[in-house]
Write a structure and sequence with these properties.
Layout (H helix, E strand, L loop, with lengths): L1 H20 L16 E2 L5 E10 L2 E8 L5 E7 L6 E12 L9 H4 L3 E5 L5 H7 L1 E8 L1 E2 L4 E10 L5 E3 L3 E2 L3
Antiparallel strand pairs: 1-7, 2-3, 3-4, 4-7, 5-6, 5-9, 8-9, 9-10, 9-11
Length: 169
């Protein structure tokens, strides 16, 4: 009886370790062309811009609160296999007194993407959120900012994005 409890407890501990151990996955490395503007998140981030619900998932741009030099994508109410993507324009925009939202026509195809890893079961069912790597937001000393948006992508290939966001002075 004592041996059965020990074996049962050991199996439970191994299973729990396997489940929890799988949750600390590192973000996937961006493609070579994206490495120049994808970076690890650093600092405190806050929701910025206009959020959007896509197939039941909510996504929004998050920007760094203090230095304001980074932004990234964030999604919640996610499912296993979902990804969140931060897209950043290559074009620089003049910052204004308030954030503004350029049309897709101003950005065109002139942007890059930083994708998160795929959401695990733990991400989707326990945490219920996932974030992308960061991208540069403001260009120091210039009063310019890149446009950034957050997209969520489902395992079936459906993608929906927020409006483009340009930070403020």
């Amino acid at each position: 009886m004592r041996a059965n409890r020990f074996i049962g407890a050991t199996c439970a501990a191994v299973a729990l370790t396997a489940v929890l151990g799988g949750t600390a996955q590192a973000e996937e490395q961006p493609a070579d062309a994206e490495k120049s503007f994808c970076m690890d998140r650093a600092g405190l981030f806050r929701d910025s811009g206009k959020g959007k619900t896509v197939k039941g998932r909510y996504t929004i741009v998050q920007s760094e609160s203090i230095a304001d030099v980074q932004a990234g994508g964030y999604a919640e109410d996610i499912s296993t296999g979902d990804r969140v993507i931060a897209q950043r324009s290559h074009r620089k925009f003049a910052m204004r007194d308030k954030p503004w939202y350029p049309d897709d026509d101003l950005i065109g195809d002139n942007y890059g993407s930083c994708r998160s890893r795929k959401a695990t079961w733990y991400d989707a069912n326990v945490r219920d959120w996932i974030k992308s790597p960061a991208v540069a937001l403001q260009i120091g000393g210039t009063n310019n900012s890149y446009a950034v948006r957050s997209c969520v992508e489902t395992p079936g290939g459906y993608r929906g994005c927020t409006a483009w966001y340009v930070d403020h002075l």
